[in-house]
C-alpha cells in the first residue's frame, strides 16, 4: 500500500515538475493559514542526545518578536531530500511558519504542555496548523522528530531521512516521547538539555507546567499517543488524528481522557485497530469523524496539496484523490477548533460544548 509519505512526496514533486519559473525567478512559496488566538508565537529547536539522537521544537507564546525571524516549515535540505526521494532534483519554497525563532517568552506563569508525534516517514512540522493554533491560545507545544522515521536536520548539518532498514514502531515513538519528557523536566528545572548548550529563549523554563501534559499524534504518532499513556502517567490526555491504533504489544486499558478524530481509520474500517482499541478507553472517550476526509484531513497536507494542485493544473478529480471531498478551508477550521477544545477541557478544566454533540458550525463532523 502506498504510504502517506509517498503520497505527499509525489504531490510535492508534482508541484515543481512544471515549467513555472524561468532563470532567476524565485520558486512559488507555499503558505500556511494564520492561527486565530491572541498570542504571538516563538519557537526554538533543541538537539537532544541519549540512547537516541533527535530534534524537537518547543513552541510557546512570545513577546518582542519583531527582530526574530520566522521559522521555516521544513528546512531546505530535508525538503530537497523529500523531493529527491521521488527521483526529482527540483526545488520549491516551503511555507514560513508564524513562529519567531528564539523570541523571548511571554510572561504569564506556567502553561500546559502538549507533545506531538508525527506519522510514518513524516516530520515534526506536519501538523503545524494545529500546533500554531494551540500556542496562539496559550499552550506550550513540543514537536518531536523520530530518528530513522523522519525528514530533518541536525545542528551540524547532518541530514536525517527515513531508513526502511531500521524498525521504528509506534512503541519506538512512545519511548522517544518519554525521553523528551525527561529532558523537558530538566528544562523546567532551569537546566539546558540542548546537546550544544545553545542559548534558550528568555523565560522558557518558567513557562512549562509539567503537571499538565497532553499528547497528540497523526497516524503512527497517534497510536504512539495511546501507548505513551499506557507507559507514562505524566500524560493526562491523548488525542489521535486518524491513528490506525495497531501495535505489538497492543494498546491496553486507559483510564485517562482520549479522543479519536477519524477519517480513514474508523471503528468500521477493515484495516483499522480502532474497534479493538475503543473498549480499552475506560474513562472519557469520544470519536468524531470528518465526512469526506482522507487520512491527511487533520494535518497540513490538506491545506498544502491544493496549493500545489493550483500550481500544476491538477484536475479536480485528481485533487479529490489526494484530499477527498473535505474542503481545505473547512479542514483548517476543524484542525483549529477540535484539538483546542479537547485540551482546554482536559488540561484547563474548561467546559467545551463543541465536544458535547454535533455543532451547526461544523456540519462535516459526525459524532
Automatic annotation (TrEMBL):
<keyword id="KW-0442">Lipid degradation</keyword>
<dbReference type="InterPro" id="IPR006311">
    <property type="entry name" value="TAT_signal"/>
</dbReference>
<dbReference type="GO" id="GO:0016042">
    <property type="term" value="P:lipid catabolic process"/>
</dbReference>
<keyword id="KW-0443">Lipid metabolism</keyword>
<keyword id="KW-0732">Signal</keyword>
<dbReference type="InterPro" id="IPR029058">
    <property type="entry name" value="AB_hydrolase_fold"/>
</dbReference>
<dbReference type="GO" id="GO:0003847">
    <property type="term" value="F:1-alkyl-2-acetylglycerophosphocholine esterase activity"/>
</dbReference>
<protein>
    <submittedName>
        <fullName>Lipase</fullName>
    </submittedName>
</protein>
<keyword id="KW-0378">Hydrolase</keyword>
<feature type="signal peptide">
    <location>
        <begin position="1"/>
        <end position="23"/>
    </location>
</feature>
<dbReference type="Pfam" id="PF03403">
    <property type="entry name" value="PAF-AH_p_II"/>
</dbReference>
Amino acid at each position: 500500500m502506498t504510504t502517506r509519505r509517498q503520497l505527499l512526496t509525489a504531490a510535492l514533486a508534482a508541484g515543481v515538475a512544471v515549467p513555472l519559473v524561468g532563470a532567476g525567478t524565485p520558486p512559488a512559496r507555499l503558505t500556511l493559514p494564520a492561527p486565530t488566538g491572541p498570542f504571538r508565537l516563538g519557537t526554538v529547536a533543541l538537539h537532544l542526545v541519549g540512547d537516541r539522537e533527535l530534534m524537537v521544537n518547543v513552541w510557546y507564546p512570545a513577546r518582542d518578536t519583531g527582530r526574530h525571524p520566522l521559522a521555516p516549515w521544513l528546512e531546505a535540505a530535508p525538503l530537497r531530500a523529500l523531493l529527491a526521494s521521488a527521483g526529482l532534483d527540483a526545488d520549491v519554497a516551503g511555507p514560513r511558519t508564524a513562529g519567531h525563532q528564539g523570541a523571548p517568552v511571554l510572561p504569564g506563569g506556567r502553561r500546559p504542555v502538549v507533545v506531538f508525534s508525527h506519522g510514518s516517514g513524516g516530520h515534526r512540522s506536519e501538523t503545524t496548523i494545529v500546533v500554531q493554533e494551540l500556542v496562539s491560545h496559550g499552550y506550550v507545544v513540543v514537536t518531536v522528530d523520530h530518528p530513522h522515521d523522519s525528514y530533518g536536520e541536525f545542528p551540524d548539518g547532518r541530514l536525517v531521512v527515513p531508513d526502511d532498514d531500521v524498525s521504528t514502531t509506534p512503541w519506538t515513538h512512545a519511548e522517544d516521547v518519554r525521553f523528551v519528557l525527561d529532558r523537558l523536566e530538566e528544562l523546567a528545572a532551569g537546566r539546558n538539555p540542548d546537546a550544544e548548550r545553545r542559548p534558550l529563549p528568555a523565560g522558557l523554563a518558567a513557562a512549562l507546567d509539567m503537571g499538565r501534559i497532553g499528547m497528540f499524534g497523526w497516524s503512527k504518532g497517534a497510536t504512539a499517543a495511546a501507548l505513551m499513556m499506557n507507559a507514562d502517567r505524566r500524560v493526562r490526555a491523548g488525542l489521535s488524528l486518524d491513528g490506525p491504533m495497531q501495535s505489538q504489544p497492543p494498546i491496553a486499558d486507559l483510564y485517562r481522557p482520549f479522543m479519536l478524530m477519524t477519517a480513514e481509520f474508523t471503528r468500521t474500517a477493515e484495516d483499522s485497530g480502532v474497534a479493538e482499541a475503543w473498549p480499552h478507553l475506560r474513562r472519557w472517550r469520544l470519536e468524531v469523524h470528518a465526512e469526506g476526509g482522507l487520512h491527511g484531513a487533520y494535518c497540513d497536507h490538506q491545506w498544502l496539496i491544493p496549493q500545489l494542485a493550483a500550481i500544476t493544473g491538477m484536475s479536480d478529480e485528481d485533487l479529490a484523490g489526494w484530499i477527498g471531498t473535505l474542503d481545505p478551508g473547512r479542514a483548517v477550521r476543524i484542525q483549529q477548533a477540535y484539538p483546542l477544545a479537547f485540551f482546554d477541557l482536559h488540561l484547563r478544566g474548561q467546559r467545551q460544548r463543541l465536544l458535547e454533540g454535533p455543532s451547526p458550525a461544523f456540519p462535516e463532523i459526525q459524532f
